């Protein structure tokens, strides 16, 4: 409250003596000033409320045109967020309780208080109404936001959840409230994860990060979660408010972006960019652990003629079929990629020796050379395959890829539909 702005009061009182006394009491010298508008009937009071904004209403329940709690309800309906303090000549406990239960901020008995009592009631009513408005707004946010919210006590026992929480998780309220929050104890994270979270909350009062959660149907999904500690003025923790949102769609979108950037859209195989990273990592591991890594560089023989004859759509179908055959011809642990055009690669991990790489190359030449049906006609393509291994033919990704590429061209020059080994690098 400040001294620059007067507190505006609507006084609805039909007794002239009582009305005058209240105005005199409020006119006493204080740090606050009051502007009082007096009305003697309910109808006049409602008109005044409709015409002007007020900070508070002082109301007598018994007026010429209205009696009892019905008077209060009519004023509250018109007043909206304006607080109402009842001034009554009846020292009636039940009436006082009924007035407060119906929405009055206070109930004062005429003649049982001086100006200070009335002023205090006015200030308290204004503050309580302001606080109530904040609570109503917070409650509306809690109930209508699409972000899941959960409230727990200091022990982590759930006391409240909002509708968004129930919608995302699939639980009903009775299955959650009164139980220990999964934030504190979850089999989806190591115990150290929850210990670190608690320690962070105790020292900083807040924690934020991505967690894994389980819905009622058992499905596991990622959530972005923020936990805030609620403290008393002395610093003691009253409880925690947890806000979370299901980020499954965000994670999927990110995965889609990564997939688009690293996957060949025609065949679904890793593209050149991803293959370069896989190859570089594979060479480094092979050198570090003294293992043999093989690389096949594959170029289709006769693809251009089929593509020119039947068209690009048929050519795309042929490339997809070759990709499927390649994937079936190698182990699950081997990586197949399309570099572009009719060029493919196969990265062979954990080879026992050169015969293993040769055996896979021979199988690739065979399966890619089998007939394929294009627009109802049986046609053939073949494959020229270059074989290179690390470290014999290269100690980094570029060297190994170049060696396999040169070996593939050697196979083509030798008559196609075959494989050839790379030349060992010179020291």
UniProtKB/TrEMBL annotation:
Note the coiled coil stretches, chain numbering: none
Q: Does the keyword Ribonucleoprotein apply?
A: no
Q: In this protein, which residues make up the domain named Response regulatory? A: 8-125
PAS domain sequence ranges = 141-179
The alphabetized UniProt keywords are: Phosphoprotein
Q: Does the keyword RNA-binding apply?
A: no
* Gene Ontology terms, MF aspect: catalytic activity
Modification 4-aspartylphosphate occurs at: 60
The record, for PROSITE patterns, names: GGDEF, PAC, PAS, RESPONSE_REGULATORY
The record's InterPro entries line, in alphabetical order, gives: CheY-like_superfamily (IPR011006), DGC-Regulatory_Protein (IPR052163), GGDEF_dom (IPR000160), Nucleotide_cyclase (IPR029787), PAS (IPR000014), PAS-assoc_C (IPR000700), PAS-like_dom_sf (IPR035965), Rev_trsase/Diguanyl_cyclase (IPR043128)
Swiss-Prot/TrEMBL GO biological process terms = phosphorelay signal transduction system
Looking at the record, the residues that make up the PAC domain are 207-259
Q: Which residues form the GGDEF domain?
A: 291-424
Return the protein name: Guanylate cyclase (GGDEF domain) with PAS/PAC sensor and Response Regulator Receiver modulation
């Amino acid at each position: 409250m400040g001294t620059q702005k007067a507190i505006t009061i609507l006084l609805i009182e039909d007794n002239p003596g009582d009305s005058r006394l209240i105005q005199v009491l409020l006119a006493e010298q204080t740090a606050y000033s009051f502007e009082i508008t007096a009305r003697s009937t309910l109808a006049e009071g409602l008109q005044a409320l409709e015409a002007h904004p007020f900070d508070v209403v002082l109301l007598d329940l018994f007026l010429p045109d209205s009696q009892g709690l019905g008077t209060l309800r009519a004023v509250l309906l018109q007043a909206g967020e304006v607080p109402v303090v009842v001034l009554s000549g009846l020292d009636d406990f039940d009436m006082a309780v009924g007035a407060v239960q119906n929405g009055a901020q206070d109930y004062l008995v005429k003649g049982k208080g001086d100006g200070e009592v009335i002023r205090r009631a006015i200030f308290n009513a204004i503050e309580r109404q302001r606080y109530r408005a904040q609570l109503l707004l917070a409650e509306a946010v809690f109930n209508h936001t699409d972000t899941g919210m959960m409230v727990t006590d200091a022990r982590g026992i759930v006391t409240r959840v909002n509708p968004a929480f129930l919608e995302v998780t699939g639980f009903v309220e009775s299955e959650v409230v009164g139980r220990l929050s999964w934030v504190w104890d979850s089999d989806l994270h190591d115990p150290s994860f929850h210990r670190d979270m608690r320690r962070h909350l105790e020292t900083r009062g807040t924690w934020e990060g991505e967690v894994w959660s389980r819905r009622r149907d058992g499905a596991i999904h990622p959530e972005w979660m923020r936990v805030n500690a609620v403290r008393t003025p002395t610093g003691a923790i009253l409880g925690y408010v947890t806000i979370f949102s299901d980020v499954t769609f965000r994670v999927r979108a990110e995965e889609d972006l990564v997939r688009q950037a690293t996957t060949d859209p025609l065949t679904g195989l890793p593209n050149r960019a991803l293959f370069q990273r896989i190859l570089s990592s594979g060479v480094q591991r092979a050198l570090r652990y003294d293992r043999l890594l093989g690389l096949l560089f594959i170029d289709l023989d006769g693809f251009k003629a089929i593509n020119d004859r039947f068209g690009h759509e048929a050519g795309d179908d042929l490339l997809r079929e070759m990709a499927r055959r390649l994937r079936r011809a190698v182990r699950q642990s081997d990586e197949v990629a399309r570099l572009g055009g009719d060029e493919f690669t196969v990265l062979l991990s954990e080879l026992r020796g050169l015969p293993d790489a040769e055996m896979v190359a021979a199988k690739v030449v065979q399966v890619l050379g089998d007939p394929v049906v294009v627009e109802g006609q049986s046609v053939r393509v073949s494959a020229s395959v270059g074989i290179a291994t690390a470290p014999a033919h290269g100690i980094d990704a570029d060297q190994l890829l170049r060696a396999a590429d040169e070996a593939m061209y050697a196979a083509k020059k030798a008559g196609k539909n075959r494989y050839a080994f790379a030349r060992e690098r010179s020291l």
